[in-house]
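Study both lines:
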Amino acid sequence: MARAAEDPFLAPIQQMTTEVAWGQVWSRPGLALKVRSFLSIAFIAALGKHDELRTHIRGALNNGATPEELTEVLLQAAIYCGIPASLESFRIAKEVLDERSTT
């Protein structure tokens, strides 16, 4: 969605996402950012939105998540969203982790 800010057609949805998701929901007290990241990863994995999943896995790592914690979140999600969605989510998480280890 980062590219949306560069495109006038997509800019309104990016602005709404920034204001509502990041400005109103993610900034609320009550849940640590890492916990919010875990919830988002599980929901996005269940929905099969793999481009968004990459972004949120990176965010979770930036919010202090460990690879072991990501494994547990994805295993938990597998119970509810199914093995095929989980397998793809694991592949994406591995790609993100590999990217981080080489930079």
Residues 54 and 95 are 9 Å apart (CA to CA).
